[in-house]
């Protein structure tokens, strides 16, 4: 775990300024337009509902565009991430936008020793986060500890069925990677990140873990949370299967052929009793 954490942290520290400089994260638009929200949060809005006045925590917040969007919807936001490079970009963006967002440097499993227990009305985890965590049960423990009684978890994530597919096959769907959580990570080697940039990464090795949908639900139930919603979506915010997808007007990507074959993401909501 320690080696995986260090490798992933180095990668995200290096990626953060590249992501902030890329038009994909729309940093300039956030600064220019005080009403602008990220595409991710705009997608979430129908299920997210009114969060005005809530004390919110965004776990694994990266450079803070979704955190900022939640603050613009009226929540009093804190963002947490293990990457100092990401938080530097997040703090700079919040300052330029004039929003008092608190950012805390810690990994998810250390959050309970960094933030006060039972102090948040809303815990938000945006898409593309859980795959960086090796143990979904420990994640659920963090969620349960930090939520107030009656507080809500809002999670949108890439569907584990999608994450088990090999994207190198551009003419069919091929299951090559774990669906269920395994102790050993899936190791990736790449000098590219997922935004438009001419830069090549120096920190090329990253470690990821998949978590089956049942494992996520069971972990939350075991911590005393009550599942209040689970919706599977046929879209996702990135081109997860190159050559087989097209981008919608709302920024989401969907399979070109028979999109009903595969769930691409899901939204799960739960309440702490």
TrEMBL record:
The keyword Methyltransferase applies. It is an enzyme of class 2 (transferase). Keywords: Methyltransferase, Transferase. It comes from the Bacteria. GO terms for molecular function: methyltransferase activity. Its EC number is 2.1.-.-. Residues 58-151 form the Methyltransferase domain. This is Class I SAM-dependent methyltransferase. It comes from Pseudomonas ulcerans. Pfam families: Methyltransf_25. InterPro entries: Methyltransf_25, SAM-dependent_MTases_sf. The keyword Glycosyltransferase does not apply. One of its GO terms (biological process) is methylation.
């Amino acid at each position: 775990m320690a080696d995986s954490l260090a490798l992933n942290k180095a990668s995200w520290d290096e990626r953060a300024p590249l992501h902030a400089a890329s038009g994909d994260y729309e940093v300039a638009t956030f600064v220019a337009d005080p009403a602008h929200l990220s595409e991710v949060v705009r997608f979430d809005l129908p299920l997210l509902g009114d969060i005005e006045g809530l004390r919110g925590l965004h776990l694994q917040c990266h450079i803070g565009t979704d955190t900022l969007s939640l603050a613009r919807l009226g929540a009093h936001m804190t963002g947490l991430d293990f990457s100092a490079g990401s938080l530097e970009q997040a703090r700079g963006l919040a300052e330029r936008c004039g929003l008092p967002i608190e950012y805390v440097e810690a990994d998810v499993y250390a959050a309970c020793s960094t933030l006060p227990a039972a102090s948040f009305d809303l815990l938000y985890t945006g898409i593309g986060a859980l795959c960086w965590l090796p143990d979904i049960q420990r994640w659920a423990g963090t969620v349960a500890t930090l939520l107030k009684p009656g507080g809500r978890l809002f999670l949108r994530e890439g569907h584990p069925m999608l994450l088990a597919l090999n994207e190198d096959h551009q003419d069919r769907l091929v299951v090559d990677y774990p669906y269920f959580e395994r102790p050993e990570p899936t190791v990736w080697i790449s000098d590219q990140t997922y935004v438009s940039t001419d830069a090549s990464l120096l920190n090329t090795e990253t470690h990821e873990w998949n978590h089956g949908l049942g494992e996520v639900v069971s972990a939350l139930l075991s911590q005393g949370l009550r599942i209040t919603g689970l919706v599977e979506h046929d879209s996702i915010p990135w081109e997860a299967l190159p050559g087989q997808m097209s981008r919608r007007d709302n920024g989401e990507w969907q399979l070109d052929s028979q999109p009903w074959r595969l769930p691409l993401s899901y939204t799960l909501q739960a309440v702490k009793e």
